[in-house]
Structures are given as structure tokens and as C-alpha cells.
Amino acid sequence: xxxxxxxAIAFVAGLxxxxxxxxxxxxxxxxxxxxxxxVTGFAIMSKQTADLAMVGIAVGxxxxxxxxxxxxxxxxxxxxxxGLAGGTVTLVSQNYGGEExxxxxxxxxxxxxxxxxxxxxxxxxxxxxxxxxIGLLGADPDxxxxxxxxxxxxxxxxxxELLNLIASRTYTGVGDTFTEMVxxxxxxxxxxxxxxxxxxGLGLGAAGAAIGTTLASGFVTVVLAWGMLGRSYGRxxxxxxxxxxxxxxxxxxxxxxxxxxxxxxxxxxxxxAQGIVVFPLLWIAASFGPVVVTALEVGRRxxxxxNSVNWGLSLASSSLVGQHLGANEEEVAVGYGADIIRLSxxxxxxxxxxxxxxxxxxxxxxxxxPAEAAQxxxxxxxxxxxxxxxxxxxxxxGALLGAGDTRWPFVASLLGRYAFALPAAxxxxxxxxxxxxxxxxxxxxxxxxxxxxYWLFRTGRWKAVSRRYRPSSEPS
Length: 476
Hints:
Elements: H1 3-18, H2 27-58, H3 61-97, H4 101-128, H5 130-135, H6 141-154, H7 156-173, H8 178-201, H9 205-228, H10 254-276, H11 278-286, H12 290-306, H13 308-326, H14 330-357, H15 359-364, H16 370-403, H17 407-430, H18 436-459, H19 462-466
């Protein structure tokens, strides 16, 4: 870190402390971990957003509606990987913090094995029945064609994406977010360049967007795999993983595997609950026509870009809380968790205000007609406001994840999305609320889990949960 960067961080830390948001001594570690992950998250989320915008320009509403349906399935892939990687970051951070690097390395190896075993069948389904998957959501014939083509060509990227997420979470767990940022950001730039060439240069439409994603994801896998095997990146500024994949065996250790599955399963459930809800929402949106489907996806994509902040703050919370719990420093872990929740709330609120002010020009990036732009702008506004709930949810759930407490956040996600959001959306089909039901659903699906997870953090029960997974809990 250069002297001017250190000075800037110190200035911001002092300002935030005076405002009662973050302790000045805790801000530098948070910032050091978070900002590369925020860039990484923005890079990852921007790929599909750029694809949606380019396909909209090249193909029109039928193409964007088809991509909206297909990206719902791709989001499941990402969230499935994030759930599995949640167990990885918990075990890596706690064991690395407790100076048990060999055990952390074995946790990474087992995560890679599980990710490969899960991703191959999912890729096979994308290849085998893409038209049936898109057809389930009520797509019209044109949208069905574009969405099915996208799923076929993006299928190989399923394997790459799950492996990339395991590698990313491993680096976060050991406190190195710069290496993954370089790899992921490079992949995002490559994705946009390749997709643009294939969509506009070769006229491949949705197929071009999918091929660009697959090639770029494969590139990121190769780059991260190099460091995950413990190999040096030379003078690139990137570091090999201090907990590399175990190549000589053993690959499986029953106690550690049980812990990985025990932590990951509820986190997988929580993540899938976030993603699966989009399918009934898209089905409901389809009843209002392809313009509303496109507008809903635009709002969700903008919200996903805003949520890039959580890729940094949530993972910083998991890593810092997990490492200090692993070192049996519970009160320090509490301080980091509380600070990150407050910081996240302030940042998300500020971004939401800016997006609301510029909602119409943002919508114009994706659609061109006045009616389409007006509808998309409305969803952009709702998406921005609802992102504040995402900020609270991600920061609080990140702290709980660092402790290994993943069951109740899973329940919170189920309640918010299926007991509140879906019924609200369904009201639009049977009452004059109409599309307003979808607006309400977007708001409830983030604020309800956010409120519950914040309450769970405040109770402090997660500290007791974490004691089961600390290195000190292992029999000597």
C-alpha cells in the first residue's frame, strides 16, 4: 500500500469513526479486504448485465426477454456455487486464523471435488433440455428460441463458474482479495470484448453472449487454478494460495467433509431460495407481456450491480469474523461484524439515492422505446430502494457465515421470498395492483431477510455455534 493510499484510508477511517459508523482501527482491514472484492463482484455481475444490454440493442425485446429467462437459470448456478463456497470460506478462515493451514488446504480440496461433482450434472441438463427449461416460465416462441440457445452455449461455463467461486472464496478466507480481483476483472473485460465481437461482429445474438461468457469463465479458471496449485505468478502482484489444493492425497477427511457439508447445505439452501424465487416472478411477469419481463430483468440486473458492494463487505465480514473467532477473539469478531453492518447500510443508501435520481437514463441503456423505458425505469427505482435490504442482509449473514451459523439465515431467506414476496407478486394477478405486485415483491424479498439476519446477529448466539468449528474444538 502506498503512502497516499494509507493516508486516504486513515482520513476516511477518522471521518467514519466521528460519524459513529466504523471504529478507525478496524476500518483499514475491512477496506483492504473489501475493495478488491467489490471490484470482483462488479466484474462478475457486469458480464450478464452487459450481455443483456448488447442483446437488447442487437435483437430487441424478444432477445432480452429470452435472456431474462435464461439468466434466471444461470443465477441458480452462481448461487449454488456461492452456497458451497460459503462452507469453504468458513473453514478456511477459521483454520487459517487458528494456524491450521494443512486442515484449511484439505477443506479447499474437498470443496473442489464437491463443486465438480455438482456442476457436471447441471451442465448436462442445460445441454439436454434447454427448451423445456425456458418453456416452463411461460416464454413466447421468440423468447423461447433465444433463451434456449443461450443455455446450450453457456453450459460448459457451469463447471468453470463453480470452480472459480471456490477459488475466490479461498483467497478471501486467507485475506487475499487482490489476486482474485485481477483474475475476475480480467475475465469480465474479456467477456465484454468477446461477447461484443460475437454479437455485433458475427451477428450471433444470444449465442454470442453465451459463448463469450463460456470462454471468459474458462480463462478465469485457468488463471486461478495456477495459484490454487501453489504456483507463483511472478511479478504480476498476484500471490499463490497459502492453502493450496492437496494433490497427493488424501482428498477426503470424514470429519472435515461433514463440517463442510453441515455448513454449506443451509447456505446452499439460502442462496437457492434467493434464486429460485425469480422463476415464479418471471412467470408472473410473462403474464403481463415481454416488455414487463424485460423491465423486471433490467431492475434485477441493476440491483445485482449495486449488490457488488456485498461481494466485498459480506465476504470481509465472513473472513474477519471467522479469523478472529478461530483465534478465540470473540469480542473483536463482534466489533467487526457490527461495524460492517453499519457501513453497508450507509453505502447502500447512498448508492440507492443516486440510482433513483438517474433511473430513466439507466433504463435507456437496455431499452429504447418510450413505453419500455418508462416501465424499466420504474423497476430500476424499486430495485435500487430494495437493495438497501440486500446490504443489511449480506453484511449480517456474512458475519453469521464466518461463525458457521447458516441454518437460521436459510430460514430467513425462505420466509422473505416465499412467505412475503411471492404472495405479494401473486396479488397483482388477481387484484388491480397489477405490476405493482412485482414492485412490492422486489422490496419484501430483501428487507424481510435483512431484518431477520440483523436480529440474529444482535442475539449473539452465533458465537456459541462457531465454537463447534474452531481448530481448538478438534480433539488432540
